[in-house]
Design goal:
The chain is an alpha+beta fold and 313 residues long. β1, α5 and β2 form a beta-alpha-beta unit. α1 runs antiparallel to α3, α3 runs antiparallel to α4 and α7 runs parallel beside α8. The longest helix is centred in the N-terminal third of the chain and has 23 residues. The protein is elongated.
Length: 313
């Protein structure tokens, strides 16, 4: 058996078969929460299908690998393309009056690299910092050394740091059976009226019951918020090509300002993140100035930097 045939049969063919099968079965996420778990890894299936297809083309007359590769690519794109084709409100020019800078960051309970993180935050100088999984040493450093006010619940799983004191803090309980997201809500005064900043941390989508409660609980709580003025950010542990995220986006009635921005895993090979699971939403009272990704800072998540401005009318 030639080396090329060995690679095709032993490596490329299984890769194409697994990628195609996973991408096709993931389409069932439309009606099954368990199958929807597969949708999050659509970029992996796309890469596997592309490798299989290219290998088949260069090997000549390898019909089965080519078909499997094409099936994986088409099925993966069917999951991912709606996010890339999703219409977004155009960004406005910097310098708009009343604009705010917000940073969302899951720091992964790791106090290592504290000085690097503080130096970057000091340089960015955000008006609002929403952090998940922080430790007391980080919280104390931000409040004392960066001069920020902290708002959070009993456990501070989600902590919101602000330049100015908040008018009111909400720390809602989790949902039924102790499931659902950790949430902190800070009500702030803005140039065009008060607005809530809602920080969330969802559990992993592999916990199907818990992830369903994440969405149900958040939607329930957001009913009491002025959503046109609200800002919602956090680690949702959910990609925009999952059907659950699409349904939640529609139900929230707020525009997701992050657009296929990969934030996880930041601690992988060469820091190559491929899953967008940290998101920023804002109501219709806000314009987007910019949405960017911060540097690697020791966490398995990249931070997200959002600059928003009150809409003129």
């Amino acid at each position: 058996m030639s080396f090329v045939r060995f690679v095709l049969r032993g490596v490329v063919l299984p890769l194409g078969a697994v990628s195609a099968a996973a991408a096709i079965i993931a389409q069932g996420g439309r009606f099954s929460a368990h199958l929807d778990v597969l949708t999050h890894f659509a970029p992996v299936y796309l890469a596997g299908g592309a490798v299989t297809l290219v290998a088949a083309i260069f090997a000549h007359r390898r019909l089965l690998p080519a078909l499997l590769g094409a099936a994986a690519v088409i099925a993966s794109l069917a999951l991912m393309l709606p996010e890339f084709l999703r219409p977004q409100t155009a960004a406005i020019a910097p310098g708009a009056p009343g604009q705010i800078k917000l940073i969302q960051f899951n720091i992964a309970r790791d106090s290592q690299g504290l000085e690097q993180r503080l130096a970057w935050l000091a340089a960015e100088d955000p008006d609002i910092l929403v952090v998940e999984d922080s430790r007391a040493i980080f919280q104390t450093a931000v409040t004392q050394r960066l001069g920020r006010q902290m708002a959070c619940g009993k456990t501070c799983e989600v902590a919101i740091f602000t330049r100015t004191p908040v008018a009111r803090i909400e720390a809602p309980r989790r949902g039924r059976k102790g499931l659902g997201p950790a949430i902190t809500i800070a009500h702030l005064a803005g140039s065009q009226g008060d607005f809530p900043v809602v920080g969330v941390h969802y559990g992993w989508p592999t916990d199907v019951e818990g992830h369903a409660e994440n969405s149900a609980r958040l939607l329930q709580l957001m009913k009491d918020q002025p959503r046109e003025r609200a800002i919602l950010v956090g680690d949702f542990n959910s990609t925009p090509w999952s059907f659950a995220r699409r349904r939640e986006d529609a139900a929230l009635g707020m525009e997701r300002r992050t657009h296929a921005l990969p934030t996880w895993p930041a601690n992988g090979l060469f820091g190559l993140a491929f899953l967008p699971i940290d998101h920023v939403y804002a109501g219709s009272a806000w314009d987007t100035v910019s949405i960017t990704r911060g540097p690697r800072l020791g966490s398995d998540h990249y931070p997200v930097v959002a600059v928003l401005a009150p809409r003129a009318n």
